[in-house]
Specification:
Blueprint: H1 3-33, H2 36-62, H3 76-102, H4 112-139, H5 142-168, H6 174-202, H7 210-217, E1 225-234, E2 237-246, H8 252-270, E3 272-281
Parallel strand pairs: 2-3
Antiparallel strand pairs: 1-2
Helix pairs in contact: 1-2, 1-4, 2-3, 2-5, 2-6, 3-6, 4-5, 5-6
């Protein structure tokens, strides 16, 4: 396993430990106060822990070398993990929304230590999100970036929950229900964003506009035409396969040199990791 993947796994383990602590603190405050919004926030933290477990397992699998059953490698396992997380979040959002609408309004209480615990949760999540986003950019990790966005959403959600909770104990108990519903909507929005990022990869949407690729490849000396060019994502990396035509009388060695030139172009200008170039005689 590469050093990058080892570092990603270490970060996920540390984040998982932090999320377990945050989950425990939210549950304690939820039971102590009877706040539906805080319970909803705790359930959201439970999905964070589940995501950490899924991510850890999948990253280990996604870094296995290509084999007979997976000739393109296992990079899409990471994308599948994000898809599973998005599905989990969407399910939680729907369940929270239903409970917020159907459950009767309850009296919510508060004491000084409850508020301090929730403020500690807020600070921990903010620092965790900032730290994780920095590592995600440094390691170019899609799953860490998704996790960092998720953790930052926790900061926003917990802020709304605390505000609603404070207003609820001051004579507006229905605001606790409203905040619980708001948490549900925020979680669904987060799930939608993750779906929007990973579905194009899973359905092999283009990674680079074919017109840009064709225009660039046509500049390679010896290329006469580009009958076909296709691109897609393999995990977080781009893959391109292209057919180019050359003069029919061109020696095989020269044709190979032209294919090498196309490969260098795609690597340098488009950051393509997986390239397949097929050379045909121009009709």
């Amino acid at each position: 396993m590469a050093e990058k993947e080892r570092q990603v796994l270490r970060i996920i383990l540390l984040e998982g430990a932090a999320n377990l602590c945050v989950l425990a603190m939210k549950l304690v405050v939820g039971f102590a106060t009877g706040s539906m919004a805080i319970f909803a926030d705790a359930l959201h933290s439970l999905t964070d822990v589940a995501n950490n477990v899924i991510a850890w397992i999948v990253i280990r699998a996604s870094n296995q070398p290509a084999d007979r059953e997976h000739p393109y490698g296992h990079r899409k396992f990471e994308v599948v993990a994000v898809f599973v997380l998005a599905t989990l979040l969407a399910t939680v959002a729907v369940e929270l929304g239903i409970r917020a609408v159907t459950q009767e309004t309850q009296n919510v209480t508060m004491s000084g230590w409850n508020l301090y615990v929730m403020l500690i949760v807020l600070v921990v999540n903010f620092l965790l999100s900032t730290w994780q986003r920095g590592w995600a950019k440094r390691l170019h990790s899609q799953i860490l970036l998704a996790d960092a966005s998720h953790t930052f959403a926790d900061v926003l959600i917990t802020s709304v929950v605390i505000a609603g909770w404070l207003l609820s104990v001051r004579g507006y108990p229905w605001l606790d229900t409203v905040c619980a519903l708001g948490v549900s909507i925020m979680i669904m929005y987060l799930a939608f964003g993750l779906f929007r990022n990973v579905i194009p990869v899973l359905v092999d949407e283009i990674a680079i506009e074919p017109e840009r690729l064709t225009e660039a490849i046509m500049q390679v000396p010896g290329v006469i035409d580009v009958p076909r060019v296709r691109s897609r994502w393999i995990g977080t990396e781009r893959a391109v396969d292209v057919i180019v035509t050359v003069a029919p009388t061109l020696p095989t060695v020269k044709s190979h040199e032209i294919a090498d030139g196309v490969e260098r172009l795609l690597e340098q200008e488009f950051d393509v990791a997986d390239i397949s170039v097929h050379v045909e005689p121009h009709a």
